Amino acid sequence: MIRVFKSGEVARADILYRGESGSTQAVEDAVADILADVKKNGDAAVLRYCEKFDGVKLAGLRVAQADIDAAYEAADPEFIRTLTMAAGNIEAFHKRQIRRNFVINDTPGVVLGQKVTPIERVGLYVPGGTASYPSSVLMNAIPARLAGVSEIIMVTPPAKDGSVAPAILTAARVAGVTAIYKMGGAQAVAALAYGTESVPKVDKIVGPGNIFVAAAKRRVYGIVDIDMIAGPSEILVLADAAANPAYVAADLLSQAEHDRLATAVLVCDSEALAGAVSAELERQIPLLPRADIARASIDNNGKIIIARDMAEGVDIANEIAPEHLEVCVDDPFSLLNSIRNAGSIFLGKNVPEALGDYFAGPNHTLPTLGTARFSSPLSVDDFVKKSSFIYYTKEALGAVQERIVDFAEREGLSAHARSVSIRFEDGQ
């Protein structure tokens, strides 16, 4: 059963507690060995790990275009329609994020600017295992395509028969993925980071995964860029006394069913609502196909915190900095400016988190583990580089040479100073 606290009774450490989320030394050691093996032995190592961890002996890693096309042609037309509508919403939202080059030429002889360049090749990790996530394909691939990434390389674990879930293949075609490889876990991250005989080396790896994937991404950062180290899923529902307890419980369970380590929190201003939501959780959990996962999440990591009022509730939410924040009050916009720390904010009593997961348009790849205090959802910005440029005529440089020389000499860097002054010595 979910634990219930009054705000004055719960310690800060318990407010921030999120259950098990970090790696272990055993995981780190295993991942280090896998990375080294794949770096040295390439495809042979990846195929060996596919047999060991996925239980399938593959002849090759790449998914044939014919298999992608066949999955698309065999898909339910209504599912394709849903994917296409969701992709359109995601594209419309992320188009607003596209950055442009800019140039400043306010001073004679001086041109300054910023040049935006797409990352050339990106690796997209799509989880497999207990569930498949075509939504993750859309959310990661569409911003990359809009940014101008020329190659989007997707990896996903194969099933026991060596296939990839048709829904994943269909979503990849809708989203514009360039190539798909059947591999998962740390070995897939290694293949993307180092390259193999059949897998091209990428410049950045994005997408969620389990603790082995997260540990591998952490280790290869610097060889490639990564989006973030994602922890288990989180939801915080901030609700007033008039909220519907059945809706609130359902929303909490929408994240609890993801993972035994997922965290679901209700912050409310009503003991009556807290009790009603607790009872609803007990009623709804047995109805879920993934009831055992949801039960473990709610019992081990879930909590209800009863705040004195909504202002204190917002303070608690800001301290937790959740991945998903639902604001289930009658006037959610009155609280919006007070919310400082959240990955994605769902405003109102008819905006379940699932709306954002699948359809609305904003990205569902979000900061977890309190990192919403300083980081942001995945966006088009994650797939571009920004370079500044500077141009000065000799006359423009001469007008500021004494300032630069003075600055450099005060830092004790005489060669810096000399590189400017030499241009204005006699005969130069």
Can you describe this structure?
With 428 residues, this protein is α/β, with parallel strands linked by helices. It folds into three domains: 3-21 and 231-361, 3-Layer(aba) Sandwich (Rossmann fold); 25-96 and 118-226, 3-Layer(aba) Sandwich (Rossmann fold); 393-424, no CATH class. The protein is 44% helix and 16% strand. It has helices at 12-16, 25-41, 43-54, 65-74, 77-95, 134-147, 166-175, 185-194, 211-220, 245-256, 271-284, 291-301, 310-320, 333-336, 353-358, 394-410, 414-421, and strands at residues 3-6, 102-104, 110-118, 121-125, 151-156, 179-182, 204-206, 225-226, 234-239, 263-268, 303-306, 324-328, 344-347, 384-392. The strands form three sheets. A six-stranded parallel beta sheet has the order 1-11-10-9-12-13, with helices on both faces. It has a five-stranded parallel beta sheet with strand order 6-5-4-7-8, with helices on both faces. Helix 6 (134-147) runs parallel beside helix 7 and helix 10 (245-256) crosses helix 11 (271-284). The radius of gyration is 25 Å and the shape is globular. The relative contact order is 0.15. It holds the Pfam family Histidinol_dh.
